[in-house]
Design goal:
Length: about 280
């Protein structure tokens, strides 16, 4: 500071005196014998403009999840619900079959990784199993499923898909993470080279009541205030609700990553079965 004027040196001295040192503690990530075990906790949120009472939430959870070995349930003031399980198998079963029905409103769940805080959770996105009906047989492939999944949102997995071979079902079935703030996509028009174009219908499994006017979750048509309405020409309705599948499910994960609590990010910490194949009995 030899070249600075006395006034500037004095100003710098006074400014430094007003500062403070960083007193943040240095926290070490546990390792070795002290390493933190995988989390057995899910965080959930009910998507609805109408409040659901704590008594209804608790009674519905106890009835729907009565097969669990053990469950700890915390109802927070910020509308988030915290569920802690006894083992990873129970956690997987509950997570894979979300959203769950809580008095007609969907309960979406996300895995709470050990390095995340409760403030990290963003429920603007959620996962659905989506059935794709009306495709020609030669379009019932993994490649088609991948393209359709990308148009819906973020593709998580494909059910009963075998590389590029045709599906054994009459429809494709995808696990997709979609934007819950946007209207549901009802389907798309498939243009065939030598034949008339056809409508391909999406059907969402475990889809509860939603607005048939704007296509959004959280309210019904009579309470809709969204304007202007999407131009879907009456394609919102009960036809978007898929019937339950009366079989067990073998799921092929497209990516070894599952979506975490943090918006627009992925989490590699959620333990999975060998070879990324998850086999669960049907839950209704």
């Amino acid at each position: 500071m030899a070249n600075l004027t006395p006034d500037i040196e004095d100003l710098i001295s006074h400014t430094n005196a007003l500062g403070w040192s960083d007193t943040s503690p240095l926290l070490a990530v546990p390792s070795g014998e002290n390493a933190v075990l995988p989390s057995l906790t899910l965080v959930g949120k009910i998507i609805s403009l109408q409040p659901v009472s704590k008594a209804n939430i608790k009674s519905n959870i106890l009835l729907s999840w009565k097969f669990l070995k053990s469950l700890t349930f915390e109802d927070r003031d910020d509308d988030l619900l915290v569920f802690t399980f006894e083992d990873m198998e129970d956690l997987h079963r509950i997570l894979d079959y979300s959203p769950w029905n809580i008095k007609g409103a969907p309960l979406f769940l996300k895995y709470w990784a050990t390095d995340a805080t409760i403030e990290d959770f963003d429920f603007s996105k959620g996962e659905y199993w989506v059935q794709v009906h009306g495709l020609p047989l030669d379009m019932m492939t993994t490649d088609s499923a991948t393209a359709i999944g990308a148009s819906l949102g973020d593709l998580i997995s494909i059910d009963n898909a075998d590389n590029s071979k045709a599906s054994r079902k009459s429809f494709l079935r995808l696990r997709v993470c979609i934007n819950l703030l946007n209207p549901l996509l009802p389907g798309f028009t498939h243009h065939r080279p030598l034949k008339p174009s056809i409508w391909v219908q999406y059907k969402y499994e475990r889809l509860l009541d939603f607005c048939y006017a704007c296509g959004r979750l959280g309210h019904l048509s009579f309470a809709c205030v969204v304007s202007p309405k999407p131009l879907v020409h009456g394609r919102y309705g009960a036809m978007l609700k898929a019937s339950s599948l009366n079989t067990s499910r073998v799921v092929q994960l497209i990516t070894p990553k599952l979506y975490s609590s943090v918006a627009d990010s992925v989490d590699e910490t959620l333990p999975r079965s060998p070879h990324h194949l998850l086999h669960f009995p049907l839950l209704v």
